[in-house]
Amino acid sequence: TLVDLKWRWNLFIFILTYTVAWLFMASMWWVIAYMRGDLNKAHDDSYTPCVANVYNFPSAFLFFIETEATIGYGYRYITDKCPEGIILFLFQSILGSIVDAFLIGCMFIKMSQPKKRAETLMFSEHAAISMRDGKLTLMFRVGNLRNSHMVSAQIRCKLLKSRQTPEGEFLPLDQLELDVGFSTGADQLFLVSPLTICHVIDAKSPFYDLSQRSMQTEQFEIVVILEGIVETTG
Fold it and tell me: What membrane topology does this protein have (predicted)?
């Protein structure tokens, strides 16, 4: 859900999560100091508090930030007289790692999503059937509008249509593979310039038994899937 949200909501949740987590953990440190009475004896040199130099909520918040961000100014630190502080410190470390991994991972995935990149891959508006190399061929074109290459680009075609099996079962959305060079390796594209993709209408093709007139009246759809790795982001 976070990856699919708009950037403004993503940033809002990112900031809100960190803010709430920080305030919650700082409150836990303040509660420990309050329960132990450290707030009233913070300036007593003969008393050993749970966390040195924590005497109000802002100082507890600063101690949490120093610990979480590993800044380590050295002015505030946990003493060995506070087992509950050590337990809270371990919990804080685990929770901080989980929050960082989750939110930063979501942001990284969102930044590397190729949604805008997909808009620069263009297909021809129409497909055509004509003779090519002496064979009746279904053809369309695909092109890359950006200078950056698509690595390991591969193209596939699916024919979607309804059909009835010999047993009488009706399949409303049957999927058939259209061979666009799988056997010869022509489906592996080197997409540096617009390419013409070809499907030979031979005895293995779903279009082999269709005439020109029946193809115009037949209800079907061809879905073209172009997969590849964006060179700049991987």
Answer: Multi-pass membrane protein
The answer as to CATH 2.60.40.1400 being correct for domain 118-230 is yes
Q: What is the fold of 7-112?
A: Helix Hairpins (1.10.287)
Hey, how many other C-beta atoms are within 10 angstroms of the C-beta on 75? 11
> Which residues of the chain are in CATH 1.10.287.70 domains?
7-112
* Contact present, 81 and 109 (Cβ < 8 Å): no
Per-residue pLDDT of the chain (234 residues), as tens digits, is 888 888 899 889 989 998 998 999 999 989 988 888 888 776 777 788 888 888 889 888 988 888 888 887 778 888 888 888 889 989 988 988 998 899 888 888 888 777 777 788 899 999 999 999 999 999 999 998 888 788 888 999 999 998 888 898 998 888 989 999 888 888 889 888 899 999 999 998 988 888 888 888 888 999 999 998 887 777
CATH 2.60.40.1400 residue ranges of the chain are 118-230
Task: Write out the H or E segment, with its range, that includes residue 63.
Answer: helix 57-68
